[in-house]
Amino acid sequence: MRTPLVAGNWKMHLRVREALDLVGALRQALDGLAGVEVVVCPPFTALADVGRALAGSTIGLGAQNVHWAPQGPFTGEIAAPMLREVGCTHVIVGHSERRHGLGETDAMVQRKVAAALAHGLVPILCVGETLAEREAGRTEDVLAAQLGAGVADVGAADAARLVVAYEPVWAIGIGRPATGAEANRVAGLLRTWLGERFGAAAATVRVLYGGSVTPETVGEFAAQPQVDGALVGGASLQAEAFASIVRAVLGARVAP
Ligand code: PGA
Fold this sequence. Notes:
- The radius of gyration is 17 Å and the shape is globular.
- It has helices at 16-30, 44-53, 80-85, 96-101, 106-118, 131-135, 139-150, 156-159, 180-198, 218-222, 239-254; strands at 5-9, 37-41, 59-63, 90-93, 122-127, 163-166, 206-210, 229-232.
- α1 packs parallel to α11 and α5 (106-118) crosses α7 (139-150).
- β7 (206-210), α10 and β8 (229-232) form a beta-alpha-beta unit.
- It contains eleven helices and eight strands.
- The chain is an alpha/beta fold.
- Residues 9, 167, 172-173, 210-213, 231-235 line the site of 2-phosphoglycolic acid.
């Protein structure tokens, strides 16, 4: 019922030339693949070139951040219409590296999600607890607060376009992911909360898992009924690794 989505978060990696090499290899490996949606999220400096290189491709283009205003005196920020202009269809919002490393608040995330939707971008809203929050038994409270704020300004008509990524902070970038069972439990919880907020539209929201997803670990998540794909960091920088993650997600969904 839900088409799985695999998004590559390139973070602050790859110069333009390297980005183009990667996207060329990804097109060869993944173009035309049906039954799974694929999105790459290069750094801002590579968006326009990668966007051109993706012309005619089934691979979508996403940004890693967006400001809530459509334009204005916000030095260093990028507006949603600017992202649309270079071909973006998606944008990551509220990644933990921005929340915890750069002071992004729930209130900012709330405005960013609304702005993305208002300008026709699909927001990939990231939520996730830190290790300290998990150990203090606060996982559900933290996730409920992040999700609640993130979707606070989303109207019922836009709800189905949302993508939510569960990314436990303690599992990001260290090669040790959450278990499939825990990702499935949390994804189900997020969907239940979305259902309380949006009703039936919540059933079509994709909930991804992110945090140390690699070709070796993806199988565990791809097999979970509540998990609709992955947000991939490190492994998305290598064409073959990312392509095999995409194929694993597709294979698990196609299998009975
Ligand atoms: P990782 O990053 O796959 O390198 O753990 C995931 C993310 O931060 O989105």
